[in-house]
Amino acid sequence: xxxxxxxxxxxxxxxxxxxxxxxxxxxxxxxxxxxxxxxxxxxxxxxxxxxxxxxxxxxxxxxxxxxxxxxxxxxxxxxxxxxxxxxxxxxxxxxxxxxxxxxxxxxxxxxxxxxxxxxxxxxxxxxxxxxxxxxxxxxxxxxxx
Length: 145
Prior knowledge:
This protein has helices at residues 5-11, 58-74, and strands at 2-3, 23-28, 32-38, 84-96, 105-116, 119-128, 131-144. By secondary structure, the chain is an alpha+beta fold.
């Protein structure tokens, strides 16, 4: 199931300028998803990170992974349960391999490692042109609103 931006907005509360997922394909509901984000020259953070050498901040790449995982979590929830929000609970094993720059299309893939009650752990990978740009273990908590 492939979700567009409007369908994504029904699953997670993030909005511009802090929504870092353009599309998301749910490969296995609740377990595995793959999303994409195009970083245009006009992204707000490029003005300060860094002038004359713009690079997508690593924290934004990690946030995009977490948003992808949040979409995957909500993809298996019933409508009544979808009133819960996914919160960032931790990050481990983060590595940044190559810079992501204006004009790059990043592919984010998250796979469930472990889940207990309202606590989820995903392996996240971010790639540009099939080259690994970043990876991390993303920990999320599901909480009622």
